[in-house]
Amino acid sequence: SRYNAMINLRKGLISREIFSSKEVFEEELEKVFTRSWLFVGHESQIPNPGDYFTSRMGAESVILARDKKKKVHVFLNSCRHRGMKVCQYDHGNTQLFTCPYHSWSYTTEGKLFGVPQFKSLYEGCLDKEDWSLIEVPKMEIYKGTVWASWDKDAPDFMTYLGDAKTHLDLALDARDGREGGSEVLFGVHKWIIPCNWKFAAENFLGDTYHNVSHRSVDLIGIGPSAEAGVKGRRDNELEKAQHVWVNFPGGHGVHSALMPENTEFVDTYRDNPVIAEYFRHCHEERKRRMGAERNRLVPFVGTIFPNVSFHGTQPRNLCVWHPHGPEATEAWRFFLVDADAPQEVKDFLRKYYMRYSGPAGMTEQDDMENWNYATAGSRGVIAKRYPYNYQQSLGKVQADHLMPGNVSTQVSEENPRQFYRRWRDYMNGADWNTLLGRHDQQPASFAE
Ligand code: FES
Fold first, then answer.
1. Which pLDDT score, from 0 to 100, does residue 223 have?
2. Residue 356, Cβ neighbours under 10 Å: how many?
3. Are residues 169 and 301 in the same domain?
4. Of 100, 122, 229, 251, most Cβ neighbours within 10 A?
5. How high does pLDDT run on average in the chain?
């Protein structure tokens, strides 16, 4: 297929075409975004009956809603009459979704409820039962996060996630090691970046190589290694840690680290005793609950195929890279905190998150600058004739590491190679066994 020619894994070459072609973009909406599991939102955003949050799946608007009986639904935000958005707001609470065009209304279960002048105009022609809002065939809630797929044949979400679960869990679980127990801080950061969505997804697969881009924030002590504020002993601990870049059959990839044994709590919140005490308590509790060995794993970043990334430490968040066009991506950041943390801790983290991430944060600017100008520098007639280089640590996969997944203990582009191998399979219309990597004989570096 044309995609086999665009992605040469053995040589580590990928055509620039897949980051700029309108045709490729349209095809990936159809072949990637209608099949894979996508993150829609978090239960904590819709705690009460009638609550809704307007989200996106691929390029389409969807409504995440909790009905009267507290059941969660994901609907396409499109009226069955002429397709108008039935929900115009980012979030809220309602009894009915009333279409602003001709006023058809739908219940929070998605049923068509009201049709103006029904008796005189539609009686005998329109069966309301047949015209509910379009609902996703597959939806699952995992530790508060809501995921959905348009493919009724998609495997369950846990199968899809595979061993990437261990890493994502550490972002979703409470800091003291309790399962779940997180909430999204009110307000989702949203902004549009002039680049292809895969630039961002790939960066979060574990592109540690780009750390030079963030040198300025590291120098002033708000980089990720400084946890939430002060540069210090944490950096030394991280230097002693074993860093791993791991990819998984489903196309997911992470950069995590195994901290030295018996790592003590590192107080990076020295200027605020309440915050310091909270995190010290979490550290001890976590060790008690998980055991010293499991407590060693620290996840930095990861991407769950195709477009959901996360930061596992601080700033702890999920980011979704919504495709808008071949050269436009809408980034959404959901910041996570422990639901039962003291308000002072939540307030502190909110400020830290804003300072670090998002459109007004100091770190995100560096990445956006790169993706923006890399896109601009790649679209020219001549530029497009030359592939991108993905040869970093080619063939240096260390598959016998104790940790599940294909593990590299040195900075590596094996994670993106695996990501694009799966992307190519989706684009080739492969079956689910292939998409789950069940036919993979070897790591991506050695694959055709
Ligand atoms: Fe919704 Fe006509 S488009 S009622």
1. 53
2. 23
3. yes
4. 251
5. 91
